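subagent[fold] <- orchestrator: predict structure for attached chain, return tokens only, no commentary.
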Amino acid sequence: MSAPFFDLAVIAAALAPLRDTGLVRDLRLLGSAERADPASGVRQPPSVLIVPERTVCTGPEGIGRGRTLTETIGILVQVRNLDSDDAAAATAIGAIRAAVWTALEGQRLAPPTWGPLRYQGGQMIAIAEGLFTWMDRYDTAAPVSVL
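subagent[fold] -> orchestrator:
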């Protein structure tokens, strides 16, 4: 049996138009080392970085049907704030977040066993060294069975 986890490459494909239209310069999946220090992942802001945030399996204990795997995907949005103009950075973050919402909210991007992506909330991660970082979270779920 292969691992039942959500393939984050489908998120990257769904968000590719943000790079193609010039809204963001850098769009990619973030590795574990970069996840520990999001600022290290920046190459050319504005950036959208996709991270596996959390996986939770719920349902009855033991092997069999009735369990659900929920994946939470973090979407880090980063912009430069070189002039210390928080309003300009917030406007840029808002435009990118709106485009991400349009591309992801309610979409079924994975195999049919996975439910639609649902927005779960967001928060400011950091404002440091001229970089403003925000993360939105999207969940999707699928039934899990090894039988």
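orchestrator: received. Logging for downstream: DSSP finds three helices and five strands in the chain. The mean pLDDT is 82.
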